[in-house]
Amino acid sequence: MRSVRDDDQVRPTVEDEVAAAGSELIGGPAGRRALTGLGWWTPVRVIALVALGMFALGMVQKLPCYNYGWFYGATTQYTHACYSDIPHLYSGRGFDLGLIPYFDKIPQTVSGGMDYLEYPVLTGLFMEIAARLTPGGGSIQHREQLYWLVNAGMLMACTAVIALCVTRTHRRRPWDALLVALAPAFALTATINWDLFAVALTAAAMLMWSRGRALGAGLLIGLAAAAKLYPALLLGPLFILCWRAGRHRAFLGAISGAVGAWLVVNLPVMLTHDASGFHIREGWAKFYTFSQERPVDFGSVWLFISQRTGNPLDDANTYATLLMIIGCLGLGALGLYAPRRPRFAQLVFLVVALFILTNKVYSPQYVLWLIPLAALARPKWRDFLIWQACEVLYFLGIWFYLAYTGSGDKHQGLPLEGYQLAIVLHLLGTLYLCAGVVRDILLPERDVVRRDGSDDPSGGVLDGAPDIFVLGSARRARHAETREGTRVQWGAESREP
């Protein structure tokens, strides 16, 4: 006998044409009387296994580099599109020498000009733990291979956490997490860098918020921001949505937890003391100074403009900051003017996408930041796959371009014009998905997540809450409801008691 929760699960093969067509590979769409969520094969386990399987395929894709590409021939790792920072930074940041990140200065003979580790504290801790777990002995190449394997194992655990959290965030839509599990860009970029650690903490924070645990969500946001900068952006949408719903206490709980967790992690590394008092540690500050001083780099709109105009864009920091501020103000206005309060995942996706689009650099693994958010914000297979196709083309474009520029007179790879086209495809693909999310906010009746009467499955205490502070069309809609004496609490009838 099925539970009510199993009966209420939304099946993508029923509501999504692309998912239904794709399901023909495994026997077709689920029928009305199909048993789901029974026995061992629950949605969480199925999706976690699929995600781990795709992660393993991504590791296999790196095999040419594991065997020889990282060590023999500068362009081999590019022509096989299997580059990873992980093995290179094992020796390039002194982990093979036993140096302590942020405390020990890296010898210039191995660092390529980087005197301290240029990653936030929790990512540095992740790297250090992996280095401690890497067996010693043998050649440096063998230890770099082992270091990549150890990190891949730890990042695989992060993948399982992401799959679990995304599956459980929307209680009635667990199968939307298959978008994450089957995302080709996820598999291709998972072991390029350490971003999955921050992505896992962010996914856990969104799960905690969806369960109404504001303080716990804030603590995880703070930890995620201590591993990568972008999770701090989640506090902006929380502020707008809590303001609109009048749930100020929930926001205060989240922000106090975030600030507290970030300080607990960073203060011991951040401050050093001598006879003259406390000072900011130079090694801790390296991530922030490097981010500020870094010139325009691969994948960004600024690099495209610079290459097309010949202008080095020395003021790109200023331009990017201004665009980010203007964009955030626009998203704030959207959150307050929308006819219905946007879902938390929608605003989070838009603000992180805005950060990516305006940033001075776009590394291929940054797509990992958006994949879980896209699955929660707009679970439409067609749009998701169009965006993923653009990201895969960019993934190939950057490596083939580096192969072209590094192959001397052979010109083996993608020329500049082809790489610029790859940048444009990445920008347009992200903007396309953003446009779909904005349309769902302005026309909430077209939002597939709300089609079953839900308000905001990832909204926690905001789910079904009435609006308190609204502007424009939202104000008019609320006044109309008040005149009719039918203050609507969206989705309240679909929530569990």
Automatic annotation (TrEMBL):
Transmembrane segments: 38-60, 146-166, 178-209, 215-243, 250-271, 318-337, 344-364, 384-404
Membrane topology: Multi-pass membrane protein
Compartments reported by the entry: Cell membrane
Pfam families: GT87 (PF09594)
Annotated spans, Disordered: 476-497
Keywords: Cell membrane, Membrane, Transferase, Transmembrane, Transmembrane helix
Family the UniProt entry places it in: Belongs to the glycosyltransferase 87 family.
Name under which the protein is recorded: Membrane protein
Biological source species: Streptomyces syringium
Lineage: Bacteria, Bacillati, Actinomycetota, Actinomycetes, Kitasatosporales
